[in-house]
Design a protein that fits this description.
The chain is built from 3 helices and 4 strands, in the order E-H-E-E-H-H-E. By secondary structure, the protein is α+β, with helices and mostly antiparallel strands. The chain has a 4-stranded antiparallel beta sheet with strand order 2-3-1-4. Strand 2 and strand 3 form a beta hairpin. The N and C termini lie close together (about 5 Å).
């Protein structure tokens, strides 16, 4: 199994509506990409968040499925339309177990 975690730092100009749309688009990827076992995105409520306001946690069977997800047109579309306009920076972590 592979867990893929992304923490997004958002631009100061990002609206609540933009965050809501990004969360909805990310969470909808499980219905569009068969390799996604689970995917959840939401606002980070931790006070230790270091300004990373949006968190994505997803799970895949293996590294190959994660790679298919990363290159999938639906994923790329969500990144381009909903994430890039609001993202200042990000941190990514992938673990295999």
């Amino acid at each position: 199994m592979v867990d893929h975690v992304v923490l997004f730092r958002l631009k100061d100009t990002t609206s609540e509506a933009q965050v809501d749309r990004a969360i909805q688009a990310i969470n909808g990827l499980s219905a569009k990409i068969p390799q996604v076992l689970s995917i959840r995105a939401g606002r980070n409520f931790s006070v230790r968040g270091q300004s990373h306001a949006l968190v994505l946690v997803s799970q895949f069977r293996n590294r190959e499925d994660l790679s298919v997800y990363a290159d999938h047109p639906e994923h790329k579309s969500v990144v381009k339309e909903f994430i890039q306009p609001i993202r200042e920076d990000l941190l990514v972590g992938d673990i295999e177990y």
